[in-house]
Amino acid sequence: MAEPLLSLRGVETHIGRYHILHGVEFDVAEGGLTMLLGRNGAGKTTTLRTIMGLWRAAAGEIRFAGRDITHLATPDIARLGIAYVPESMAIFADLTVQENLVLAARSGPPDAKRLDWIFARFEALKRFWNLPAGLLSGGQKQMLAVARAIIEPRRLLLIDEPTKGLAPAIIANMIDAFRELKDGEASLLVVEQNFAFARQLGDTVAVMDDGRVAHRGDMAAFAADQALQQHLLGLGMDTHQ
Amino acid sequence: MKRDWIPLLLIPLLAVAALPLVGSPSSWVTLTVAGLAMGLMVFIMASGLTLTFGLMDVLNFGHGAFIAVGAFVAASVMLALAPWVTVDSLWLNLAAIVPAVLAAMVVSGVLGLGFERVIVRPVYGQHLKQILVTTGGLIVAEQLLKVIWGPDQITLSRPTALRGAFLLGDIAVEKYRVLAVVVGLAVFAALAVTLNRTRIGLLIRAGVENGEMVEALGYRIRRLFVGVFVVGSALAGLGGAMWGLYQETVTAAIGAQVAVLVFIVIIIGGLGSVGGCFVGALLVGLTANYIGFLAPKVALGSNILLMALILLWRPQGLYPVAKR
């Protein structure tokens, strides 16, 4: 069996005096898209931040492409080819759309073909190219945050709630974009509350509950098991979207 | 792009409002140039401090040490080159002042590098400790200056070419103040070009907003911070040298004294904003000179009053930085 691109084993994370993650374990396969689901406060965002080194794992191991990255600094983790889109989007509000993307393209000016590909999906970014990002709408900011992560090829994308605040048409574009990325160059780990979106895209799923992975397996099987969804996700998850 | 011009308009508004109060146009021109010169010297000293706060949330109360060191180093070089300072030759005067200023910047920059490593780095993210330890650093630096240069004040004479004033009718404008305006504007232009037209500037602006996200994009924000800290210290050294020449005396307390103005300026401008620092510095310089002329008894408190009024209007300063 091929080694997964990303694997977490027994990961424990504390934030201050709070013990948030309790031995988190799951994998993301090379070329796969894993959905990380769970109720609010289950530890999904903490898991992504721990992978990025923004919060430190107190125990356990995080491996990426066969390498232990548990104790690497955030910039070194990013330079291995991991891009991160936080839930807050964290766009640079005083910088223009162009400057946000130029900054994210570490290896030089953004590739024109790549930019056209992004503009085809997120047209607003082209329209507001020279506008300070802080003046974009919530949905446009989300587009920019995702575009920043994919402005250059990356091996793994960590994306926290990409559909939050987006119109259905833009969500459809995002689904197309993620599928193309998955089929082409990247693996994805996506935290999502929109189960309809998660079901369409995910190959595998890990469901978190109270800082632990309570279930992992194929998305298709999970999507078919409504009792399990109800048990693990409860009413907080919008299963009707 | 929508720009906020209102704070910038305060500068001409303040100047125009002062004209009828001052009465004499010639006095008004003299005071205005003096205010701009003072403001731009304070801007030079403050610009690095506002960026270091913006980038790493570091409250460096020891910034005055770099100002004082710059003033002392410049004084020493100019004393060593005294014959070139007193001779009536612009070129020889420049041959004295340029190495003095460069030496001030280099020594302050190197000191800044050491200060960041030894004093600031252990207290990243801990504001109370930063205030205590950097204030301690300033006190130690002042005492070391007294050990090295002695406890007495040093007279720092301006070169002959920078003495006197340009006379335009009955308007007299001090030559040194014109030089201070030119150097201040040059520093502002250089910073503006660096911040707005270069990749390193883009990184600094992004880092001031959200350093964590800059790191997540693969850039080492601490390395950037050290660079900014060193450049900011060197600029403080340049400002200290210019302030020393402006006052024509240098004491160990020169940095701590002017640091009060520096902190007022960065708070007025909006912590982390170089543009705000520039506008704030000019407002402080003009206010100090106009009030010093019109009501000398309240001159000392005028800048505190200015800060209070601006913070009542814009609690985050003139140009708040969008923080994460």
What does this structure look like?
The complex is a heterodimer of chains A (241) and B (324). Chain A is built from 10 helices and 10 strands. Chain A is α/β, with parallel strands linked by helices and 241 residues long. In chain A, β7, α7 and β8 form a beta-alpha-beta unit. The radius of gyration of chain A is 17 Å and the shape is globular. Chain A starts with 5 loop residues before the first strand and ends in an 8-residue tail after the last helix. The model of chain A has no long low-confidence stretch (mean pLDDT 92). Chain B is 76% helix and 4% strand. A two-stranded antiparallel sheet of chain B has the order 1-4. Chain B has a two-stranded antiparallel ribbon with strand order 2-3. In chain B, α2 packs parallel to α8 and α5 crosses α9. Chain B is globular and about 60 Å long. The chains are: A alpha/beta (241), B mainly alpha (324). Chains A and B meet through α2 and α3 of A and α8 of B.
Brief synopsis:
The complex is a heterodimer of chains A (241) and B (324). With 241 residues, chain A is an alpha/beta fold.
Describe this protein with a few key phrases.
heterodimer; A: 241 residues; alpha/beta; Rossmann fold; six-stranded mixed sheet; four-stranded antiparallel sheet; B: 324 residues; mainly alpha; ABC transporter involved in vitamin B12 uptake, BtuC; two-stranded antiparallel sheet; two-stranded antiparallel ribbon; 4 strands
Helix content of chain A: 25-40%
Largest sheet, spatial ordering of strands of chain A: 6-7-8-3-9-10
Order of helices and strands of chain B: HHHHHHEEEHHHEHHH
CATH architecture of chain B: Orthogonal Bundle
Principal-axis shape of chain A? globular
How many domains in all of chain B? 1
Write down the oligomeric state.
heterodimer
CATH class of chain A: Alpha Beta
SSE topology string of chain A: EEEHEEHEHHHHEHEHEEHH
> What is the mean predicted local confidence, pLDDT of chain A?
92
Strand content of chain A: 25-35%
User: Pair with the most extensive interface?
Assistant: A-B, 27 and 22 residues
Query: Helix share of residues of chain B?
Result: over 70%
Parts with pLDDT < 50 across at least 5 consecutive residues of chain B: none
Cα gyration radius of chain B (Å): 19 Å
Largest sheet entry of chain A: 6 strands, mixed
**Describe the biggest sheet of chain B?**
2 strands, antiparallel
